[in-house]
Inverse folding.
């Protein structure tokens, strides 16, 4: 099983690695690797919920919540829906809730931490947006790789 450092060694010019450390939640401890979908939304997770209700086809949802730290973007119900709909994982520039329940699910969720308050529901946000955080630029169709070490992205799928 390859690790993020192994992939970085194989593709030093093609893998851009986060300059920030995030926390990893969920039961899955395998390498997270897949094509990404993006969404930008703050203070409102209704778009996140609707995206994760779709067939994920093994993709990874990258959410830029602008680091908002007073509400959570994902809780146990949305995470369970993501598992049911074949999403491999989520990378979130924001916070989750229901840590114990999420840690029992077979999914990887990478986030800044946890906060218990949920968001408003107004349907605000932008899907498929180019987003930037942790020193990286994320676009739909890019590939994300993550493990316990950190996470990184590539403009194309890396073979290993």
């Amino acid at each position: 099983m390859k690790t993020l450092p192994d992939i970085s060694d194989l593709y030093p010019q093609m893998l851009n690695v986060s300059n920030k450390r995030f926390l990893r939640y969920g039961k899955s401890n395998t390498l997270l690797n897949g094509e990404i979908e993006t969404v930008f939304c703050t203070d409102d997770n209704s778009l996140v919920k609707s995206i994760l209700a779709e067939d994920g086809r093994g993709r990874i949802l990258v959410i830029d919540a602008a680091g908002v730290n007073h509400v959570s973007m994902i809780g146990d119900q949305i995470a369970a829906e993501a598992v049911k709909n074949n999403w491999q994982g989520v990378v979130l520039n924001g916070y989750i809730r229901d840590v114990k329940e999420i840690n029992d699910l077979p999914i990887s969720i990478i986030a800044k931490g946890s906060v218990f308050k949920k968001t408003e529901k107004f349907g605000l946000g932008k899907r498929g947006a180019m987003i930037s955080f942790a020193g990286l630029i994320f676009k739909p169709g890019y590939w994300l790789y993550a493990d316990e070490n950190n996470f990184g992205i590539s403009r194309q799928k890396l073979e290993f």
Q: What stands out?
A: Residues 76-84 form the longest helix (9 residues). The mean pLDDT is 97. The chain is about 15% helix and 30% strand. The helical segments are 4-10, 46-52, 76-84, 99-102.
